[in-house]
Amino acid sequence: MTVQTKVVEYSQDGTNFEGYFAWNDAAAQPGPCVVVSHAWGGLGEFEQARARDLAELGYAALCLDLYGKGVRGSNPEENSKLMQPFLDDRAMLQSRLTLAVDVASQQEIVDASQVAAMGYCFGGLCVLDMARVGAAVLGVVSFHGIFHPPGNTEGNDITAKVLALHGWDDPMATPEQAVALAAELTAAGADWQIHGYGHTVHAFTNPAAQNPSLGTVYSESAARRSWSALVNFLEEIF
Q1: What is the pTM of this model?
Q2: Are 139 and 162 in contact (CB under 8 A)?
Q3: 67: exposed, middle or buried (C-beta count within 10 Å: 0-12, 13-18, 19+)?
Q4: Which of 19, 35, 38, 237 is the most buried (most CB within 10 A)?
Q5: Phi/psi class of residue 215: alpha, beta or left (left: φ > 0; alpha: ψ in -120 to 50)?
Q6: CB count, 10 Å around CB of 174?
Q7: Percent helix, strand and coil across the chain, each rounded to 5?
């Protein structure tokens, strides 16, 4: 069993993107694929490592690139500047997300009927938007995601299963916002779960997150529990 990786280039409206694709050459092909949506700094080693972890489990994984080839942030100020235009124009964000799902589905070893998505922080918001707009995914998993609704999906049915893995003390996604997300998903007819981890804040899966003043702190227990929840979810939908 060997994990293989490659760069996947794609484009939209004159912007070139560089995704990262990982797969297991011992797995049955074509098979299921998970699209991995990055945090606010852009596609990096953290997301690439998760793609390789998924490949170890036998899934293909495509890390999408929202910002464009080589466009990455290196500090919170730069990250925020990169992310903000997508928060201001959710239709643009949703278009790029749908494109990434299409790119994943078009990979030769992927069964286009078996695609899911997962994302971290800003990427958690992204995969929720995939579900909201009816992207071709069976399910989405948000890790310490942002819950703000986009404002352009009211009345849509959500057919993808939804799993939100959430630090209950996350200052960027309050308990009130978690309850509002539950109400939104219920109204949309979604099959949803929200797992709240006590005494846990934002970015709990990232060992590099150690900034209590910003509300981003790694939690070994929440990281472990949330990955187990992801594995169980993928086994269910695939």
Answers
A1: 0.97
A2: yes
A3: buried
A4: 35
A5: left
A6: 13
A7: 35, 25, 35
CA distances (Å), origin 104, targets 31, 176, 229: 11, 34, 23
Q: For the beta carbon of residue 129, count every other beta carbon within 10 angstroms.
A: 26
What's the one-letter identity of residue 60? A
Place of tokens 């852009």: 42
Q: How many CB atoms lie within 10 A of CB 18?
A: 16
> What pLDDT shows up at residue 188?
98
User: What CATH number is given for 3-237 in this structure?
Assistant: 3.40.50.1820
Pairing of strands 210-211, 216-217: antiparallel
Alpha carbons 23 and 5: distance in angstroms, whole number: 6
Task: Please list the residues that pair with 118 across neighbouring strands.
Answer: 36, 141
pLDDT digits (tens, 9 = 90+) for 202-213: 999 999 999 999
Tokens of 20: 């990262």
Q: In what order do the strands lie in the sheet with 3-12?
A: 3-12, 15-24, 60-63, 31-37, 110-120, 139-143, 161-167, 192-197
**Nearest C-alpha neighbor of 60 from the set 101, 3, 17, 15:** 3
Is the predicted pLDDT of residue 1 greater than 70, yes or no?
no
CB atoms within 10 A of CB 22: 25
| Domain locations along the chain | 3-237
**Pairing relation of β-strands 3-12 and 192-197?**
unpaired
CA atoms in the 13 A half-sphere facing the CB of 23: 21
